[in-house]
Amino acid sequence: MKPYQFTQSEALFERAKKVVPGGIYGHQTPLLLTPGSYPAFFARGKGAHIWDVDGNEYIDYMCSYGPIVVGHLNQRVEEAVRKQAAEGNCFNAPTARWVELAERLVSITPFADWAAFAKNGSDVCTWATEVARHATGRPKIAMAQGAYHGAHAWVTPVMSGVMPEDRANIVYFRYNDLASLERVVEENRGKMAGLIISPFRHDAGHDSELPVEGFLSGVRKVCDDNAMVFILDDVRAGFRLHLGGSGEVFGVRPDLSTYCKAIANGYPLSACMGIDRLKKAAAEVFFTGSYFTSAVPMAASLATLDELETTGGIEKMRTLGEMLRDGMLAQARSHAIEVTWSGPPALPYMSFQADGDKHSRNKLFCGEAAKHGVYLHPRHNWFLSAAHTEEDIRRTLEVTDDAFAAVQKQFGN
Amino acid sequence: MKPYQFTQSEALFERAKKVVPGGIYGHQTPLLLTPGSYPAFFARGKGAHIWDVDGNEYIDYMCSYGPIVVGHLNQRVEEAVRKQAAEGNCFNAPTARWVELAERLVSITPFADWAAFAKNGSDVCTWATEVARHATGRPKIAMAQGAYHGAHAWVTPVMSGVMPEDRANIVYFRYNDLASLERVVEENRGKMAGLIISPFRHDAGHDSELPVEGFLSGVRKVCDDNAMVFILDDVRAGFRLHLGGSGEVFGVRPDLSTYCKAIANGYPLSACMGIDRLKKAAAEVFFTGSYFTSAVPMAASLATLDELETTGGIEKMRTLGEMLRDGMLAQARSHAIEVTWSGPPALPYMSFQADGDKHSRNKLFCGEAAKHGVYLHPRHNWFLSAAHTEEDIRRTLEVTDDAFAAVQKQFGN
After folding, report:
1. B291, A268: Cβ pair inside 8 Å?
2. Using one digit for the tens of pLDDT, what is the confidence trace for B65-83?
3. Do B286 and A66 touch (CB under 8 A)?
């Protein structure tokens, strides 16, 4: 198969650079990918397949960096959207979907008594820290060094435009290092409002790390012993590992948890869920936006949850992720290439051990895959969806076998 | 006509309170309205008319607090949405709509060379201050005391959860008081990154104020003299006063301007536009969100701009707003009630002079109007849309005449 060409993507990107800072900014900028091997613009999607503006088709393992969890144009979701959109979307107040979705989320989430809605993951992660501060009357929030909890100034990975004051009340520990958390809490005794942590470590540019035995339960105990609010950032993993929240998988229950991404299959919605004890404080921290109560994304969310539940979507993502993992690991062995496979099956990541921090082999590998119809990412975890099929995985493995060969050819074993 | 009942709204609100902090939080909470006189939940909309969950119909002068600018279910917008949605919405990268919309906005906005997109007004207002800081290497942002530029901690009107550090780099002047700005800039000489200001003063709970002669040009000169970035917050007024930005109406051109609300007729989109000199800094300040590049709201925005342009929507909103104003002012006079009408015709506000800061008469007035099918707000500016008709205004004036009578009956003249 001839490698893909990106003529239209490149022409559009040239136009984009004239009228948009950087052409495409943020996590979707092509600058983080393999130059010349990826499209910059997409045209359409169906299930787990996407087509770029040049007409090239991909089996997609980024799922729009998470949101697409039951596939593009999922029939149940689109039908719910059409039905809601025919009545209207954005009003002076919510629709009944607001109540129905909050009730639904509370009913499937063992720890939670309430839900609040917004648009971005950043919205809910930032607001959760404010609720923790207001509830405790204390200023400091602990987070794992290098973790991503949104693009706001207190946590953005890029320091341009960030002031020292933006981070004056953030303190840092190391993921999977309980002693480092205990130390920072001790150093800030009486000032700790809470902590925010992802269910597993999925920092971009690094191998993922599942929580080691006793870590999250230890975190829970530190919070309990110090009356700190435990915020689980489930923006990336939520609704891919467990319908009741990723804490259920790892045996921990937070006080607040944040969702976005997979919550509505690409329709713009984020949520924070919480325990009854924090409900009053949550009602008192101002939280609003022009589209926070819009009905279409909530209808999409209800249908997405239905689809995941009735089709066993969580289990399917796990099984297909395992098939992908087993296939690619066997290929790596057959090419005598040392790779590290990390993360849970539904959100896996693979790196090349000889790459160190550079991702050179991974950029070649993922670039080769992209040019032949399989969309992976060289420095960000991947996403399975419930729309992937065993046939997709088989076809993917044909492409990745050639990509491993290309790495072997250029870098040796 | 019998006053509306809100049985279903009340039942839903009771359910909401169980599973959502405050039931409905933020600017749409019924707590800011007239108890017993407003619905809490909506079911559908068409043009300038909306129906609540009890089936009560309203001529709507809040337009979802701004977003609905060409009417609910506008044919051109919905057709563009359907067409885009059939291809897909949320991908690993933008679609061509990203480029087309940026080009379109730049082409209609005299001051601007580029556009960046997000989801909330808060997103773009906060990011604009960060771009100003990064571009100038200086920390301080000036804003008008009491102004609303989003729900983030540096500017939220409610202090719960806000830390002193969140506002350490914000300094305050008074709207329409140039000397107060000059003073604060002098006090912070060498530290001022920029200022953020709305094209007219539209703080909730107050009469609106148009900029006095020389104020905005004076603000522009202060920015130029001190190499400060002029950020125009056009989130509320944008695309209702002028297609080229509200600065065009008031004779001032900013360096950055922020949009949300009317930009896509209720589809979730916000934007920041800027001058070439700030483009590099803008590309360097991290800005991203799960749905920032989604195509459907951009297709909706292109169609909304088409609709406004081809139907003379801006002029229509002005004319209808004048008709509403003239009618209501005549009614107030006939009832011998002193009112203050403020703001531009497309975003008017009316208060009762005898109310002082309390809004008691206005709550009764707007409550009576709501219970009889006209949706106004007692403490927030109103919004005309291009879907309103002269017949809507005539019907509205029948209702408001009775509402004035109710005020006269309860409060006297």
Report:
1. yes
2. 999 999 999 999 999 999 9
3. no
- In terms of CA atoms, which chain B residue is nearest residue A18? B114
Angstroms from A119 CA to nearest CA on chain B: 7
Mean of per-residue pLDDT scores for chain A: 97
Identify which of A20, A126, A168 has the shortest CB distance to residue B165: A168
Nearest-CA distance from A295 to chain B in Å? 9
Chain B: residue whose CA lies nearest to A277:
B21
What secondary structure letter does DSSP report for B155?
T
- A335 — pLDDT class (breaks 50, 70, 90): very high
pTM of the predicted protein model = 0.98
**CATH 3.90.1150.10 is right for the domain spanning B7-70+312-411:** yes
Architecture of domain B77-310: 3-Layer(aba) Sandwich (3.40)
Q: Give the whole-number percent of chain B exceeding pLDDT 90.
A: 98
The pLDDT score that the predictor gives to residue A168 is: 98
Instruction: Give me the architecture of the A75-310 domain, per CATH.
Output: 3-Layer(aba) Sandwich (3.40)
Q: How confident is the model at residue B304 (pLDDT cuts 50, 70, 90)?
A: very high
CA distance B281 to B291: 23
User: What is the distance in angstroms between the Cα of B213 and the nearest Cα belonging to chain A?
Assistant: 31
How far is A316 from B60, CA to CA, in rounded Å? 46
d(CA B166, CA B153): 6
Edge to edge, the sheet with strand B49-52 lists B42-46, B49-52, B57-60, B374-375
Instruction: Give residue limits of the domains in chain B.
Output: 7-70+312-411, 77-310
CATH number of A7-70+313-411: 3.90.1150.10
From residue A165, how far is each of A124, B181, B288 by CA, in Å?
21, 23, 21
